Amino acid sequence: MKYAIxxxxxxxxxxxxxxxxxxxxxxxxxxxxxxxxxxxxxxxxGKYTGTVTMTLKPEHSNESYASxxxxxxxxxxxxxxxxxxxxxxxxxxxxxLTDQSTKDYGTGIAKMTKNAxxxxxxxKFYFEPEFKGGNTGVEDCTRN
Length: 144
Prior knowledge:
Elements: H1 2-24, E1 34-42, E2 46-56, E3 65-74, E4 78-87, E5 90-97, E6 105-114, E7 120-128, E8 135-143
Antiparallel strand pairs: 1-2, 1-8, 2-3, 3-4, 4-5, 5-6, 6-7, 7-8
């Protein structure tokens, strides 16, 4: 009987420790940092090209969540600064043209995938609530 009680207690302790470790073990976030070449189609402005730079903020990232500084440079329009928040392969991006008088700012949502060459790519839909009475667009970007 002593051995049965001891075995029961040992199994119970092992199960509790294993369950506790599973709850606290971090799930590694993916690092999408890098420079991306983009083509876009804006409902008001039409087709454009640009460069996105995403820089991981590890001090604000954990488990499956990652935080980034975000910069979009569009020739002829300017630089859009912002930030991004990722959960797995889904990334939300906020951006704003440095010339704030245009009210050219918005929020996008993207899904990260890898292409046949193994490069990270994303397709982003964005919404700009105040630019020219409201605006939407899409971007396709590939990490260099």
